[in-house]
Amino acid sequence: MNIVILENAAKVEEYTAALILSEIQHRPYPKLGLATGRTMEGVYKHLVQAYNRGFDFSNITTFNLDEYVGLSPIDEASYRAYMDKHFFNQTNVERARTHLPHGLAESMVDEVEKYRSLLEEAGSLDLQLLGIGNNGHIGFNEPPALFGSETRIIELSEETRQQNAGAFENNLEDVPTHAITMGINTILKAKKLVLVATGPSKAEAVAGAIEGPLRASLPASAIQLHHSVWIILDIAAANQLKLQTYYHRQAANSTKIQEVHDYIDKYMRS
Ligand code: F6R
């Protein structure tokens, strides 16, 4: 695992964006798995900034982790609208190569099949971006989540609906009860996982995911099964990790981690 612990959320957002840029530059047709949520807003802000400084996103294909069931893509609270607003509409990403499940499809059963097939046809994604819920979910894989799960409809937990109520003017009853999400096994098929967390509310889930046992009741712990994982944290989210000194020492000696800092200098601080 490449564990990077940075001073604050702003640095985490910048570093994560730089890691994505470096992935894109190393591949002719990068396939990215994307996430939404508050943590990612700042990441997309930096990607837009890089575009404004000449970075080209025209060759990327994207697949988002999840979407609310019952929201149309033009509903402001939908994840499609989020992606359009924060990233796609502000850069030269080819719209036809951006994919999210349709939250208001005529048949959600067919929509699940359709998204599964799309992902299968695409093959392994080069990088999968992940946030983490306070309850340890990744995507919308609520605990307990089978590590063998694939794209499916899931009932959202009360905690997650409360966590996300901000996007619905804090009206809990407006937060959809269900979502369509890539499964844990779908996520694990990506070539590289990048998990990002900031703030104290994530500290317990982060510590469990990295240093705790593998368990369905902490879906994010499944990342331990993957061969290439990056975890980008601020001090608050890293707070309950026991081996912090070790992670800092490893990071200081890692050329891979230093390479990403070069991208920050090139695209974000010029
Ligand atoms: C969103 C997603 C979720 C979020 C997680 C963290 O596409 O897959 O797993 O990443 O709920 O959300 P924030 O960043 O809002 O705390």
What does this structure look like?
The protein is an alpha/beta fold and 270 residues long. The protein contains 10 helices and 10 strands. The strands form 2 sheets. It has a 7-stranded parallel β-sheet with strand order 1-10-9-6-2-3-5. Helix 1 (9-25) packs across helix 2. Fructose -6-phosphate is lined by residues 35-39, 65-66, 131-133, 137-140. Residues 35-39, 65-66, 131-133, 137-140 line the site of fructose -6-phosphate (F6R).
Quick recap of the structure?
By secondary structure, the protein is an alpha/beta fold. Helix content is 37%, strand content 15%. Helix 1 (9-25) packs across helix 2 and helix 1 crosses helix 10.
Features:
seven-stranded parallel β-sheet; binds fructose -6-phosphate; 270 residues; three-stranded antiparallel β-sheet; alpha/beta; single chain; globular
Helix content: 25-40%
Measured on Cα atoms, how large is the radius of gyration?
17 Å
| Overall pLDDT metric | 97
Structural category is: alpha/beta
**SSE string:** EHEHEEHEHEEHEHEHEHHH
Largest sheet: 7 strands, parallel
Poorly predicted ranges (pLDDT <50, ≥5 residues)? none
From the spread of the alpha carbons, the general shape counts as globular
Number of helices: 10
Gap between N and C termini: 30 Å
Q: How do the strands line up in the largest sheet? A: 1-10-9-6-2-3-5
Number of strands: 10
